[in-house]
Q: What sequence folds into this?
């Protein structure tokens, strides 16, 4: 039971990383990514192949997985950067499918639908499985903390302010002299890097990856996690992921509550609940549990013209 | 070799004719409501299963069952848009797109819950392929293509001549001007949801008549449908037809050089190519 809880916390952390990546793309820069699972798989495969087949160290594989996902994200964003956001939605959705098809069919490279097994993990085999679980949980917790810290820095930096400006109105940002397209591509690549990082860690944790593990439903989990937690809020992304994992795991006990269902019907019910939850939250609480709070900058009174002062008083 | 290529082109054109039906649905909804309604995927599946119920359970012949598929998917699309997607649209097209993906998951699983994951086939007469000049064509494919062409002809007639059809084009063309002229954009939105999703469902059944159906039928087809719409010009109905024929032929010709498993990747490559070289698509964004 303890192992189970630890494993679920690890998954919450991995989902949290993905939600943080999505938060950069969607929460900060206002771009859509419906192919999260494709970038997740991309990172997982790169890291697994480098460490398993070539024997490179794990840390290198993980970084390479993140970098590879960033490059893939950059390419996808570059193709659609000048177009309306709808196109990015279509292209990212297609990207994740193509990754899955490629992983299933390039058997020489990815071992096809059999997947890659025996992916090395830190200290795996040297310690008991329970200890390995705990070590990995600590590792994931540290990675999440570091990523949250770095992304908070980005959010509060002028860079993050530009991204929010682009999200809210990219024409205004362009008029203010910001290179909107470059910022969009960079933000998308940064978000995908975090998602790829999560994928790489996932492979090293479970020691086995296969195309079947990268279904589009995972994208929905992450969108749900971020929306429930609070779009635009890094802490919300992590909180939302913990809630989603908790929610998913508690629906496992659905079989006991509703008797007389076949396995496939239970699986269908769980997926319905996830999709339904996302729709309901988007309708009733679009800001999420921890709505985005914009960093306030208090200007010194003397820096404002007198007219602005009176207007500000009216506003407050 | 030449006959082989001719056979592939013929297959591609017939596949493209069928593909055009859901692609028109997707692009028409985009033209009027201005967001990519990904729940087309699940309405394709719902149509396929509605047709299955009509065909296998009630024993109706395929051409009649197709009408049933249109109606069920149309009403399902209308209800979903009314209660799920329309309230989301003020938050922006991307929020609506995300909600549409969530909706797809829900609807797909309603089908899975009711019918299970097994492959199902329609109850069709077994017919011998026709052969002429070294080319093969199955009568069933011809019938499917014929149904698709009739459905498209009805749609074009509706858009060209009926008052509602003209109003729909007006809203797609210039929503502001249309509302000044007193066209009720909400009613037009309902109409396009019904017709568009109905076409998606009809297309789903046509796709299923060729092979078999399961709850993932729509999802598997969806990348090709998007590709057809984007290649032809997102929001352009004749464009969807041109795009669907292009993608259909390209997918078949890809068999000459690629593994069949990569068929649906062809659509993705086509999307990337078109967006890089000619983002408006072949026919541009004009709705009709």
A:
């Amino acid at each position: 039971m303890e192992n189970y809880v630890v494993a679920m916390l690890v998954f919450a952390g991995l989902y949290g990383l993905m939600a943080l990546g999505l938060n950069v793309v969607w929460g900060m820069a206002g771009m859509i990514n419906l192919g999260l699972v494709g970038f997740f798989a991309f990172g997982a495969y790169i890291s697994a192949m480098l460490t398993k087949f070539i024997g490179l160290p794990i840390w290198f594989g993980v970084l390479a997985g993140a970098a590879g996902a960033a490059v893939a994200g950059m390419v996808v964003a570059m193709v659609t950067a000048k177009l309306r956001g709808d196109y990015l939605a279509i292209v990212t959705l297609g990207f994740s499918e193509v990754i899955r098809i490629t992983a299933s069919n390039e058997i020489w490279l990815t071992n096809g639908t059999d997947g890659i097994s025996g992916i090395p993990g830190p200290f795996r085999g040297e310690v008991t499985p329970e200890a390995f679980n705990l070590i990995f949980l600590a590792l994931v917790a540290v990675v999440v903390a570091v990523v949250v810290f770095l992304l908070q820095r980005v959010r509060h930096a002028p860079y993050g302010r530009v991204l929010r400006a682009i999200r809210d109105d990219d024409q205004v940002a362009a008029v203010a002299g910001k290179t909107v397209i470059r910022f969009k591509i960079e933000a998308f690549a940064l978000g995908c890097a975090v998602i790829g990082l999560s994928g790489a860690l996932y492979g090293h944790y479970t020691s086995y990856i296969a195309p079947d593990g990268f279904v589009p439903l995972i994208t929905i989990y992450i969108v749900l996690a971020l929306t429930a937690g609070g779009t635009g809020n890094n802490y919300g992304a992590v909180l939302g992921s913990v809630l989603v994992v908790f929610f998913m795991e508690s629906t496992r006990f659905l079989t006991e509550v509703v008797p007389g269902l076949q396995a496939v019907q239970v699986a269908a019910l769980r997926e319905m609940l996830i999709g339904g939850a996302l729709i309901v939250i988007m309708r009733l609480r679009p800001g999420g549990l921890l709505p985005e709070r914009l960093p306030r900058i208090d200007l010194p009174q003397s820096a404002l013209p007198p007219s602005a002062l009176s207007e500000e008083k009216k506003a407050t | 070799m030449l006959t082989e290529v001719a056979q592939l082109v013929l297959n591609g054109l017939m596949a493209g004719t069928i593909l055009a039906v859901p692609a028109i649905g997707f692009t028409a909804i985009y033209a009027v409501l201005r967001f990519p309604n990904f729940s087309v995927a699940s309405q394709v599946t719902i149509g396929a299963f509605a047709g299955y119920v009509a065909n296998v359970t009630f024993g109706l012949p395929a051409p009649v069952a197709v009408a049933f598929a249109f109606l069920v998917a149309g009403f399902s699309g209308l209800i979903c848009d009314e209660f799920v997607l329309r309230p989301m649209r003020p938050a922006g097209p991307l929020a609506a797109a995300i909600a549409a993906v969530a909706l797809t998951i829900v609807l797909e699983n309603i089908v899975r819950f009711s019918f299970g994951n097994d492959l199902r086939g329609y109850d069709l007469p077994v017919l011998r392929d026709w052969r002429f000049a070294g080319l093969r064509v199955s009568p069933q494919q011809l019938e499917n293509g014929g149904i698709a062409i009739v459905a498209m002809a009805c749609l074009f007639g509706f858009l060209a001549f009926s008052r509602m059809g003209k109003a729909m084009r007006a809203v797609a063309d210039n929503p502001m001007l249309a509302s000044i002229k007193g066209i009720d954009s909400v009613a037009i939105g309902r109409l396009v949801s019904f017709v568009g999703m109905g076409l998606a469902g009809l297309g789903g059944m046509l796709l299923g008549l060729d092979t078999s159906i399961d709850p993932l039928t729509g999802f598997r087809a969806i990348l090709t449908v998007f590709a057809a719409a984007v290649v032809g010009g997102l929001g352009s109905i004749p464009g969807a037809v041109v795009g669907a024929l292009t993608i259909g032929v390209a997918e078949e010709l890809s068999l000459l050089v690629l593994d069949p498993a990569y068929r649906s990747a062809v659509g993705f490559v086509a999307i990337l190519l078109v967006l890089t070289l000619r983002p408006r698509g072949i026919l541009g964004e004009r709705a009709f």
Q: What stands out?
A: Residues 11-219 of chain B form one domain. Chain B touches chain A through 46 residues (CB under 8 Å). Strands of chain B lie at 130-132, 135-137.
